[in-house]
Amino acid sequence: QVQLEESGGGLVQPGGSLRLSCAASGFTLDKTSIGWYRQAPGKEREGVSCIGNNDEYTYYIDSVEGRFTITRDAAKNTVYLQMNNLRPEDTAVYYCAKVFCRWSTMIRSTGDTWGQGTQVTVSS
């Protein structure tokens, strides 16, 4: 019952850019808050960025502020994460999920399942 599919990851050198896509099926992303998470090997999964249910609010953790941009294309039922000036510490598997996104808070329903994610590797 995959409803969100991540894509766009790859291998990039430090300072490079990637654009991740989160495509929805079975429901409409428009009017839905969506967040991006990432998990590096041996580390906890962390929230990275989210966009509110009416594009009224976006949130970024400090380490990606000014480098990443989250956007929504309602016509394509897709949320994007533009990742610029990538650093080796950005290396992780990136996931998207439906979230509550407001007041510097990302809350994902514990009843939801994770997709396969997309691998981002930043290395010289």
Task: Provide an overview of this structure.
This protein has strands spanning 4-7, 10-12, 18-24, 34-39, 46-51, 58-60, 68-73, 78-83, 92-102, 105-108, 118-122. The chain is mainly β. Strands 2, 4, 5, 6, 9, 10 and 11 form a seven-stranded mixed β-sheet that branches. It starts with a strand and ends with a strand.
Name some characteristics of this structure.
mainly beta; four-stranded antiparallel sheet; 11 strands
SSE order and pairing:
Elements: E1 4-7, E2 10-12, E3 18-24, E4 34-39, E5 46-51, E6 58-60, E7 68-73, E8 78-83, E9 92-102, E10 105-108, E11 118-122
Parallel strand pairs: 2-11
Antiparallel strand pairs: 1-3, 3-8, 4-5, 4-9, 5-6, 7-8, 9-10, 9-11
Give average pLDDT, whole number: 94
Largest sheet: 7 strands, mixed
Tell me the structural class.
mainly beta
Distance between the termini: 37 Å
Q: Give the beta-strand count.
A: 11
Order of helices and strands: EEEEEEEEEEE
Low-confidence stretches: none
Taken as a percent bin, the fraction of beta residues is over 45%
Question: How many individual helices?
Answer: 0
The percent of residues in helical segments reads under 10%
The gross shape turns out to be globular
Using only C-alpha atoms, the radius of gyration works out to 13 Å
